[in-house]
Amino acid sequence: MYPISSQLAAFVTKTESFTSEDSSLAGLRQNYDRMCQAFTPSQPDGLQVSDAALGGVKVRCYQPATATPAQGWPCLLYMHGGGWVVGGLDSHDFICFELASALQVLVIAIDYRLAPEHPFPAAYEDCRAVWQAIQAGQGPYAINLQRLVVMGDSAGGNLAAALCLGLRDDGQPLPQAQVLIYPGLGGPADLPSRRDCMDAPLLSSADTDCYLALYLLGGGEPSAYAMPLLAEDFSGLPKALIAVAQFDPLRDDGMLYAERLQAAGVEAVLYPGKGLVHGCLRARGQAPEVDRLYDYLLSYLGSEQLTQV
């Protein structure tokens, strides 16, 4: 039904092999962690990885072994995916390794609190706390605040977009750019991708509904900081790269967000992700279409003067 390449189909099969009959929260997290571990390469040479706390939130820092640049480190603040429910620092080592090594920048990944134990706004507030701590010059690294980009995949893309909205609304300093990879942004249930990709590989429409419900358990009316597409004003936000996957129920969230940013005068680039599925970032080196996505991401981040000069 979904015409994905044989290479990507093999990746999907391997990923799905980690599912089990145990659908409890603990079981879901354990299976996800096992799957992530299977796709995590060894730590690259020339990269120093250490855990710390910023603003009272656990983070993991990925620092190239070169001397600190005179103006401080260009920095990429990374928010991991996992539906706000699964994942953590270990689950996204794979992409943080790549970003720090390829770009020679400091990457800081945020270990935000997970739902349903900690529903919205806990994860959002944790990301804000880390941002404020960086702005205040806390932590062990000299960071160039003019070369600071926020980035996330799936639920992490949601958090990166929400962080930008909240900072703009409060008149706070903004990141240079936001990079959102197949983000879930709270789009309406009647978007075409919800129907066309209802049972897409690795993420179904039912899955997205379930994760969002767990995230919003706090009750009350959802805000734009939980579902960024609810925002009424998209002006004054950082420029954006939004990469979507063709066969993903969340595809149209990203497309709609790009349209709304562009309509508000914000520079937004949409990467259409032809042939891709949700969660495909882990297929680096296994499928040419995924490698093309990485090439585009790294090129964009380099062109944003994030890389060291």
From TrEMBL:
InterPro entries: AB_hydrolase_3, AB_hydrolase_fold, GDXG_lipolytic_enzyme. Residues 76-281 form the Alpha/beta hydrolase fold-3 domain. GO terms for molecular function: hydrolase activity. Keywords: Hydrolase. It comes from the Bacteria. Pfam families: Abhydrolase_3. This is Alpha/beta hydrolase. It comes from Pseudomonas poae. The lineage of its organism: Bacteria, Pseudomonadati, Pseudomonadota, Gammaproteobacteria, Pseudomonadales.
